[in-house]
Amino acid sequence: MKRTLYKNADWIITMDEARTRYRHGDLLIEGNQIKAVGTDLEKSLAGTVEIDEVVDASGRVILPGFVNTHHHTWQTLIRNIKATQGLRLEPWLTTMYEIYKDLNTDVARAGIYASLGDGLKTGVTTSNDLWYPHPVGVTGLVDAEIEAARELGIRFHPVRAYHSVTSDIVPPEVVDTTEGVMADAERLVKKYHDPSRFSMCQVGIGPSIAQYETEEIVRATVDLAEKLDIMVHGHLAESQHEVEYTIEHFGCRPVEWFRRHDMLGDRFYYAHCIHLNDEEVELMAKTNTGISTCPISNMYLSSGSCRVPDFLRAGVTRFGIGVDGAASSNSANMMEEIRVSYLLNRLSWGDNSANAEDVLYLATAGGAKVLNRDDIGYLAPGMAADFTLMNWSQLQYAGGCNDPVDCIVLSGDARMVEEVVVNGELVVHKGHLTKVNEEEKRQYVTQVGRELLTRASARIEGLKADLC
Ligand SMILES: [Zn+2]
Question: Which domains can be identified in the chain, with CATH numbers?
Answer without folding.
Answer: 3-64+378-433 (2.30.40.10), 66-370 (3.20.20.140)
